[in-house]
C-alpha cells in the first residue's frame, strides 16, 4: 500500500467515524475525547482511554479512535473485540512513573520461582498497552506509540555467562513494554510506529494467529519478541534497535509450560542496529558508532530462551544494515527444525552473518536435555563489510550434532586481517554458555567454521576478504558427510589452506576454484 493510499484509507476511516459518532459512540466507534481525553500531552488521559475501551466492550466491541493529539497515559487495558485506531497525528505517550502509576506486574509463580527467563519476558500488565486472554484485537493506524516513560531494565540487568540470575524487576509502578499480549488469539498490529519501546516494543507470548504488518520500531531494547506463538506473520516492518535484537522468536517457559514457536513467516523487513534511536523514524538515519555497549544488534534471531521447539519457520526478503547477522540458537532443550532462510542482504555486519548454535545451557525444568537443530536451509544471501574475526559459525556440542544443513547461493565479503596464529586456534566448546556469535572468541577460519555437524551441503558459495587474511577459508571439526560444490573462495595470505579438516568423515568437494576434486572417507587432520 502506498503512502497516499494509506493516508486516504485513514482519512476515509476518520470521516466514517466522525459521521457515525454521537456522544462519543455510535455504530461501533468510540472517540476517546468524548470520554474525557484531552490529547494535550500534559493531562493524564489513562482513565478516559480505558473508559472508552470499557464502553466499546460493553457494546459488544468496536473501534476506539485517537484523533490527532498527544495522549499521556499509563497502562491501557485492551479487551476482546476492540480495535485501537491511531489517527494521523495521534500519539499515545507513556507517562513517567513519577507522573502516573502503571499497573503492577501480575504474579507469575513459575517465573518467580525458577527464573528460566528474565523479568521482562515473564510479566505483561506492567506495560503501556496490555491484554491477557483476549481474542479479536487490533492496534492499527498511522499514529505513534511513544514510550517516553518506559523502563528498559538495563540498570538492573546482571547475570553470569550462562544467563543465570537475570531476573530483575522494574521500579514500582513503572511500565517496561509498549505493547504486551499474553495468551491471545486473532491479533493484528498494523501501520503504527513505536518509538523508545522500553524492554520490548512488542512482546507477544502464547499468541495464535498474529499479524504484525507495516510497523516501524525505533527503540532502545528489543523491537519485537514473538514468544511461544503459533501462526504468525511479520511483514513489511522496519526495525532499528541498536542495543538489542530487532525481531526475535523465542520459546521460553514464561507461561509455566513448554510451548513451541511455530508456523511463522518473517518477510520484507528492514533491520538495523546502527542508527541513533529515533533517526530511522524521522528519516535522518544518523549513523552511530557509539551505540550502547557498541552492540550494533538489530538482528533477526531464533532462540536463546529455547525451552519450547521452533518449527516450520520461513524468513525471506529481508535487508540488514549495520547490525548483527541472523542467529539460530537452541540451548535450553528445544528442537529447531524445518527452517528456511532466503533472499537476505546485509552490509556492515557486526559479528557473524550466519550463526547457528546448539548448546547445553539447559536452563529449564528438571530433566531438560540438549535439544536438536536439523533441516535448515539458507539460500540467496549477500553480505559485505562483515566482521573480520568470526566469519560464519555453525557449532553443536560434543555428542550432539547439528544435522542436515544446506547453504547455497551465498556471496559474502569479510573485512579480513586474520593472522596465521589464529588459523591454528581451537575454540573452546563453551557448552553451557549464553549463546552469542562472539562466545568462542576469534575463529580459526575467515569464512565458515563447522563443528559437531552431520549432513552438510554447501554449493554456489563465494567468499573473499577486503584485506588479506592468513586463515583457512573453512575449518571443519568433528563433521561427517560434508559436500562442497561450486565454490569461489579466496586462498589466504602465505598460501594458507582453503580447508582445514580436524576429524572429518565423508568429505567431498567439486568445482572449487584452485583445488582438485577431493574424496576423503576419513581424516583426522588434513589441510589443502
Topology, please?
Blueprint: H1 3-20, E1 25-26, E2 29-31, E3 40-44, H2 46-58, E4 62-66, E5 69-73, E6 76-77, E7 82-86, E8 90-94, H3 109-114, H4 119-122, E9 129-132, E10 135-140, E11 144-146, E12 177-182, E13 185-190, E14 193-195, E15 200-205, E16 208-213, E17 216-218, E18 222-227, E19 230-235, E20 238-240, E21 247-251, E22 261-267, E23 270-272, E24 300-306, E25 310-323, E26 326-330, E27 335-349, E28 354-358, E29 372-386, E30 392-395, E31 402-414, H5 420-423, E32 448-465, E33 474-489, E34 499-512, E35 518-527
Parallel strand pairs: 2-4, 3-5, 4-7, 5-8, 6-9, 7-10, 8-11, 9-12, 10-13, 11-14, 12-15, 13-16, 14-17, 15-18, 16-19, 17-20, 18-21, 19-22, 20-23, 21-24, 22-25, 23-25, 24-26, 25-27, 26-28, 27-29, 28-30, 29-31, 30-32, 31-32, 32-33, 33-34
Antiparallel strand pairs: 1-2, 34-35
Tell me about this structure.
By secondary structure, the chain is mainly beta. Helix content is 9%, strand content 46%. The protein has a 35-stranded mixed β-sheet that branches. 53% of the residues are buried. The N terminus is likely disordered.
Give the structure's gist in a few sentences:
This protein has five helices and 35 strands. It is mostly beta strands and 528 residues long.
